Amino acid sequence: MADTESNNNQSTGLTKVLVAEDNAVVLKGLHNFLRKWGYDPVKADDGSQAWEILEKDNDIHLAILDWNLPGLTGVEICKKLRLRTSGPYVYTIMFSVRKSNEEQIEALDSGADDYVVKPCKPSLLYAKLAAACRILRMAANINLPEAIPPETKE
Residue 111 maps to which CATH number? Predict the structure, then answer.
C-alpha cells in the first residue's frame, strides 16, 4: 500500500524518492535510511502501485525499483517512464538481487539510470542517490535540497 503521508506531504522541502519493493523488511530498511539521509520516501509494494504514484506525483524525480515486483516489474516501469511524453524525468536506480552483467545491461538498456545489487552497503546507496541529485540538478536545473550526511553511512 502507498505511503499516503508522504504522497500528501509537499511542505517538507525534502526530495521525494519512490521506493518500490515487495519485501516488507527491505522496504522498511530503505525507508528508514532515506529518512535518516534527509529524503522523503514514498513507498509502493508492487509495480502497478509504483507506476500509479509516478503518474500522479510530479514531485518525484528519484526512484529505487526492485526488479521482481508483482504487477509491473522494475524493468517494465523503466520502459514506461522512458516512453511517456509528459511528467518529470525520474532518475531510476534498479535495486535487485540479480547480479549478472547481462541482467544489469538489460536494466540499463530498459531505461534504468543506475543499478545496485542487493544487499548493498548503505554508504553505496547513499553515494548513488547523492550523485543522482547532482545529475538532476545539473541536467534540468531542478532545485533539490542536499541530503543530510549521516554520522556513519554504514
Answer: 3.40.50.2300
User: What does pTM read for this prediction?
Assistant: 0.82
| Count of domains forming the chain | 1
Q: Give the domain range for residue 43.
A: 4-140
Torsion of the alpha carbons at 43, 79, 85 and 71, rounded to the nearest 10: -50
Among residues 109, 107, 127, which one has the least CA distance to residue 66? 107
Bridge partners (DSSP) of residue 60 are 16
- Is residue 111 in a domain? yes
Beta strands in the chain (DSSP E): 15-20, 39-44, 60-66, 91-96, 114-117
Asked if the structure places residue 153 within a domain, the reply is no
Distance in angstroms between the alpha carbons of the first and the last residue of the chain? 28
pLDDT in tens, 48-80: 999 999 999 999 999 999 999 999 999 999 999
